[in-house]
């Protein structure tokens, strides 16, 4: 239809989308060969030619102009690439304008899911976290053959935990970006419903969306609220149903679908239902601690981007912001910017943000992870069952808290 409407490049994009999923699709292959000869300028069926020429669209003109330019280049021999007499740049513009992303993504792509453009390279510092993600999650996910070779079944979900604002959600999105997968974050509010049975159905629907959009990272945020210790839920049968439904779905992800990757995040891993932590479920815990120096450097740079600055000593900011979370660092930058702004208003002369604004901001903004670390310390010291929180223990030791 696109070809008939005089959009061969768009038709080609659709064609490659189909072939990317099903390389042997006969219809797509047939269309591809029609398109290639069409784009080469070979004679095509009269009906098509007529329609294409009848359309005096801007794209049409541009494509024609492109053809001429390309031919000129061919004459001078300047163009090395095989010349099909087709202006790919014009075609790209055309495609960008008219093709529905949902079509390119495949028929099942839902609007609830996104395709993150961040990867682990965008996550500053946190080298340990990245290394463990690579070994425990990404490597086996990328290599089904390798998984088979080592007789390892599809890993269950990975549970990211740590104080608020330290990058759990950010890392989860980066994992999806890394896998070239879509990302579907599930908020508790999307799932829980006052009506009996509705919550379970909602949860099932979340997994269905992920299966339809595979490869897809299904991200459960604040999993502690969803799977609170069943003991705490004895009075709440509805909640218990949700926990059981989640367990069932996670078990079936393993058998039914290779393209659904489950990640969870929580600030309170010690409150997560132990049933959820069994092998094949959220069976590995990964601490996302407050950002180290390298991470703070990149977070600060991110938040200072595009702001007027003068004489900012990054190394000093990084050093002074030890123990700050990502969110604290954002707050710090905002506060410094505010200082500079008010000063400009007061004096009537606009000036950039300087170190002295940060000095004042440091007096106002303090690391927010303190209370979390105290809780964590109590759990680790008195209830580190089966060494589940060894990583956390090591972190607390390193900070002299345990
Ligand atoms: N290592 C990092 N590199 C770059 N930016 C980071 C990093 N860690 C955190 N950030 C920034 O801090 C912001 C807050 O992080 P995020 O929302 O992922 O925290 P969280 O752990 O999910 O917090 P919460 O527990 O409140 O959900 C991110 O949007 C990101 O901009
Ligand atoms: Mg989060």
List key phrases describing it.
402 residues; Helicase, Ruva Protein, domain 3; 3 domains; five-stranded parallel beta sheet; 19 helices; 5 strands; globular; binds adenosine-5'-triphosphate; binds magnesium ion
State the distance separating the first and last CA atoms: 68 Å
Shape: globular
Give the H and E element order: HHHHHHHHEHEHHEHHEEHHHHHH
Strand order of the largest sheet: 2-3-4-1-5
Total beta strand runs: 5
Taking all Cα atoms into account, the compactness measure Rg is 27 Å
Uncertain regions spanning at least 5 consecutive residues: 44-84, 95-109
**CATH architectural designation of the largest domain:** 3-Layer(aba) Sandwich
Kindly identify the CATH topology of the largest domain: Rossmann fold
> In DSSP terms, counting alpha (H) and pi (I) runs of 4 or more, how many helices?
19
SSE diagram, text form:
Elements lengths: L7 H14 L4 H15 L5 H9 L3 H19 L11 H11 L2 H4 L22 H16 L1 H6 L7 E5 L6 H12 L2 E5 L1 H4 L6 H15 L3 E5 L2 H4 L10 H20 L3 E7 L15 E6 L5 H12 L9 H7 L5 H22 L7 H10 L5 H14 L6 H9 L4
Parallel strand pairs: 1-4, 1-5, 2-3, 3-4
The structure holds adenosine-5'-triphosphate and magnesium ion.
Give an overview in words.
This protein has 402 residues and is of the alpha/beta class. It has 3 domains: 8-104, no CATH class; 120-287, Rossmann fold (3-Layer(aba) Sandwich), CATH 3.40.50.300; 293-364, Orthogonal Bundle (Helicase, Ruva Protein, domain 3). The protein is built from 19 helices and 5 strands. A 5-stranded parallel β-sheet has the order 2-3-4-1-5, sandwiched between helices. α18 (370-383) crosses α19 (390-398). The chain is globular and about 70 Å long. Residues 44-84 and 95-109 have low confidence and may be disordered. Bound molecules: adenosine-5'-triphosphate and magnesium ion.
């Amino acid at each position: 239809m696109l070809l008939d409407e005089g959009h061969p490049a768009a038709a080609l994009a659709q064609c490659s989308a189909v072939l990317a999923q099903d390389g042997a699709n006969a219809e797509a292959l047939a269309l591809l060969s029609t398109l290639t000869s069409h784009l080469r300028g070979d004679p095509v069926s009269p009906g098509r030619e007529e329609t294409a020429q009848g359309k005096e669209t801007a794209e049409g003109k541009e494509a024609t102009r492109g053809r001429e330019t390309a031919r000129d280049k061919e004459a001078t021999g300047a163009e090395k690439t095989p010349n099909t007499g087709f202006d790919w740049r014009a075609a790209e513009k055309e495609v960008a304008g008219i093709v529905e992303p949902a079509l390119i993504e495949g028929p099942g792509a839902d609007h609830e899911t996104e395709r993150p453009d961040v990867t682990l390279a965008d996550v500053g510092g946190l080298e340990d976290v990245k290394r463990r993600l690579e070994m425990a999650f990404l490597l086996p996910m990328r290599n089904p053959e390798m998984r088979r070779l080592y007789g390892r079944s599809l890993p269950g979900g990975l549970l990211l935990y740590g104080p608020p604002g330290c990058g759990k959600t950010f890392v989860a999105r980066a994992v999806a970006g890394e896998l070239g997968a879509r990302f579907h974050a599930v908020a508790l509010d999307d799932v829980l419903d006052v009506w009996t049975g509705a919550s379970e159905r909602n949860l099932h629907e979340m997994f269905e969306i992920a299966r339809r959009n595979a490869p897809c990272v299904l991200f459960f945020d604040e999993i502690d609220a969803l799977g609170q210790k069943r003991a705490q839920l004895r009075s709440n049968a509805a909640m218990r149903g949700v926990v059981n439904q989640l367990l069932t779905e996670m078990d079936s992800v393993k058998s039914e679908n290779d393209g659904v990757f489950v990640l969870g995040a929580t600030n309170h891993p010690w409150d997560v239902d132990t049933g959820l932590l069994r092998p094949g479920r959220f069976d590995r815990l990964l601490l996302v601690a407050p950002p180290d120096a390298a991470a703070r450097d990149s977070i600060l740079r991110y938040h200072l981007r595009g702001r007027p600055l003068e004489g900012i000593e990054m190394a000093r900011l990084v050093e002074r912001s030890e123990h700050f979370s990502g969110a604290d660092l954002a707050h710090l930058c905002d506060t410094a910017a505010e200082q500079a702004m008010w000063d400009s208003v007061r004096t009537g002369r606009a000036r950039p943000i300087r170190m002295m604004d940060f000095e004042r901001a440091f007096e106002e903004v303090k690391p927010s992870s303190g209370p979390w670390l105290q809780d964590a310390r109590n759990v680790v010291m008195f209830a580190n069952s089966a060494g589940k929180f060894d990583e956390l223990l090591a972190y607390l030791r390193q900070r002299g808290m345990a």
